[in-house]
Every structure is written in structure tokens, then in C-alpha cells.
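Fold this sequence, please.
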Amino acid sequence: MPQSMDMTVDIGEGALDRFSAWCAARPVTGTIRIVADLRTWEALGSEADAALRRRGLAASRTIIAGEHPVAGGEAVLRLLADSRDNESLLVAAGSGTITDIVRFVASRIGKDFVSLPSAPCVDAYASSASALILGGAKATIPAAHPAAVFADTRILAAAPAAMIAAGFGDMLCKLSALADWRLGALLWDEPFDEAVAQRSERAARCAIEAVDSIGAKEAGGIEVLMGALVESGLCMAAAGHSRPASGAEHHFSHFWEAERLRAGQAPILHGLKVAIGTIMAAGLWERVARLSRDQAATLLAGQGPTDEATGIAQIRALFPSSADEVIATQAGFLSLGAAGWAGLTGDIIDNWERIQAIAAGVPGVPAVRDLLARSGCPVDAREIGLGEADLSRAMAGAHWQRDRFTVAKLAGALFGSR
């Protein structure tokens, strides 16, 4: 399924052996550095090291320490400090965190890198951006896509069930994310690529069709899920941004991640947070879908633009360590004013039928919950450590994180704080 651009993509049993053969056939020689955390070294990194050595290739390693490694300053500095001029290749043996660290460092020191996924849990493996923690908030930093992805289904199927479920959550969300992308193109003049959107939707639907096999951890289902995740990463690389894969549901997830990081709490798997965010986004789309044009016009007439001072105060309260950056990215919304509000609401009413058509492409809350449950993914926020207050804060303010028009922005225009 993955359309591999100019990278090698190999998903299947025995991919680890084919990885070492690929390395041996490279015209560039030099030491290969394997990067892992403590868990992924045991699950994957040590096998990759042994496979390389069997072919006579020199390998070194960097182990990112900590019970819950974070893709941020300390880990990046660790890898930069370990890297040597005679190394020809970096290898990310792990999940999204390790891949983001290696991708960023490889792009900055001018080295190729290979992604060896340890679990089918995220769509970051083939993308061209790193999600790093900067100033206590998640930031997407342009980097480089890997030279190759080798995903061995034997290793992927042995991953914890929660990580596999997280991968399905990160794929199911594409249907709401794509709806948000279409909405942003319609109402906020965001660039849109129909061909990439269709690729992303096909990948999501492939995973949906295999949901029961994925939930059972069957090799076939795991291979489909991994292929869909890689294709999603390639869609982001093709688009040059994360819009094909990330909408309001990801904004909710990033919001919770930053809050937990500031509080010193253990992280929650990205895809599990996204799954809960997808349920919330589906609920917002359901509310929009129930409105007639006249009802929408009445609701919009009763609202108004966010007062700039009020918006800034809210951002400072919700994003204490990154407020200035968030305020800068939200300048267009914060300075909307009466004229801008009139133009936006007029566009919403004029395009109501198209908005309804977009909403129709998003599965309803019962369908989302059913699919997630079949994959083994939690559908109650309390199961992953999120309470009602966490959900309420995210619903009220997570939309400020990105200069994007999503269903959360639309719902705010229609319903306000109700």
C-alpha cells in the first residue's frame, strides 16, 4: 500500500534481515549508530545490532535513558554528543519518540537515517517532521524523511496490545482530520491537495477494514496497520505539513501531553489520547451535522469574535510556558474583529451545504467508539488517566495551539462556550 516516494519501504516478516542486507549494499561505508531506549533495545535494537555484525558491519549505540523518554532537549543533546564524523547512518530502533529524536538530529548533522519501528503505534515513521517538546509544548519541526523503513511484522506483533491499539487510534482519526483539512481550505484559505487527501483516506479505510484482525494481533492485520501508518507519514511528507493526518483530535492530544509534562506526570501513548480526541471531534461534527442553514445562521448571529484581550488571557492561562509563541500563531484569529467575523460567518452560511457534506464523511460517535473498542483501544478517557476537567479544558482551549481552522473552531463560532 505505501507509495514510497524515494525511500525504501519494507514491511513483513524477515524485514530485519533485509535491513542488514540493505546496509551492507550501501555504497557509503562507516559505522552505523543504533538509537533506542531501554525497552526498544531489548525488543529490537539488540537484534538489529547482531544482524549488522553478522554482515561484518561496525555498529555503535545510543540508549536514551529514562522510564518515559521524551523527544526533547536532553535526548537530542545525548545523541548529538554521541554522534561521530565517521558514522554513515543513524538507525531509529523504536517508536515515535525515538524516531522523532533521530530524524531531527540526522537532518541537522547531514546523515541519513533508517526507521526500524518497534510497534505499529504511530504514523511518524515515514514523515518528514519531528514532533519535539520545546518550552513545555509540542512543536512540529521540519526535518527529513528516512532513507528507508524496515518493519518486521514478527517484532511488531509482539508489541504490547496497547501500542497496537494506539496505532489504530492514530489511523481512525484520519477521517476527522481530513474533514478538518477540507474545512480549513473552505473557510480559512488553507492549502489543500485532493490527491494526498484521497491517499490518506484510503490508508485509514484499509486499517478500518482490518480492525478485527488488528485487535486480535494477527500478522495480516498488523501488516495492514503498519502499511497504513507508513502511508500516512508519506502523505504528510508529500503535503509538506501534517494536515493529511492531524486535526482537532491531535490538538486535544497535544494539549493533554503538554499539561502532563508540566505537571511531571507519566505520558500517555499518543494514539490512545488521539482516540479519545477523535471521539470528541466526532461529537462536534455530529452537532454541526444536525443544524440546518437557518439554525446555523441564528447561532452565528448570537455569537461574536473572541475579544483579543480575552483570547490572549485565555492562552496565557492554558499555555503558560509557550504563550507568546501561541499568541503569535493565532494573530489571524485574535485580530479578527467585527469585519473579519462578518466575513467568516458569511462564508460559513454561504457554504453550509458543503460543510454538511464534509460532516457526512466523519463517522458518528457510536461508530467511532465501536471501531476503537474492536481494536482494543480504550473509549473512556478515565481508562487512560484523563478526567472530565482534562476534557473540558481541552475542548475550551486546545484549538489555540495551531493556526488551523478545525471543527473545534467552527463549533466555537456556532455554540460558543455552551
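The CA atoms of residues 293 and 352 lie 6 Å apart. The two ends are 43 Å apart (CA to CA).
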